[in-house]
Design goal:
26% of the residues lie in helices and 29% in strands. By secondary structure, the protein is an alpha+beta fold. The longest helix has 21 residues. It has one domain: Sandwich (Jelly Rolls), CATH 2.60.120.620. The two termini are 27 Å apart. It contains 3 helices and 11 strands. The strands form 2 sheets. It has a 7-stranded antiparallel sheet. A 4-stranded antiparallel sheet has the order 5-10-7-8, with no helix packed on it. The structure holds N-oxalylglycine and nickel (II) ion. The site of N-oxalylglycine has 10 residues, from strand 10 and strand 11. Nickel (II) ion (NI) binds next to loops.
Length: 197
Amino acid sequence: MHTLFDSIIDSYLEHKVGIVENFLNPSLSNHLKDNLNLLYIQNQLLDAGTGNDIEVNHDKKIRSDKIFWLDRIHQNKYENDFFDLMDRFIIYLNQTCYTGITGYEFHYALYEKGSFYKKHVDQFRNNKKRVYSMIMYLNSDWQIGDGGELCIYNEDDCQHISPTQGKSVFFKSDELEHEVLLANKPRMSITGWLKVD
Ligand code: OGA
Ligand code: NI
């Protein structure tokens, strides 16, 4: 497990964007994908907003994904396995990098065909608690041409990251501008933030 944690931390330190394969093992990502599919079929996903409680904004011209927050209160085995993994990751990150992370929040995200999320940074203007962004992709048969790449900006350049199952991406929430390109078929992920109080 620590090898995996070291890989994403090393990749982050070297490139400002940490990328690692198999952060979620195939079984866990399949189960989480099934959860998300079920939530979608049951109409439980919400239109995602931008901003937070104080300035929330449901502008479909900015983002058009649908979300559902994970919570231990659901008593879902796979959400709990996911949180157990994140708990271990945060302990390791705090011990090795003195990051002082005290909490997190994660939501499922589903981009229907034709959805996107325009260029943005993840930290809110009126709340600096989000320190690191972390995304886990759940798409097992993603092909070139399916779109939906995460595009991370570095001045005028843009690093394209395909949202393939098992891949996890990790970066600072306050500095990197990024966007999700138009998805040509349903695109699934878990996205979240490691936070300080
Ligand atoms: C976000 C975000 C990227 C992705 O939800 O803030 O930038 O690849 N997601 O899903
Ligand atoms: Ni973002």
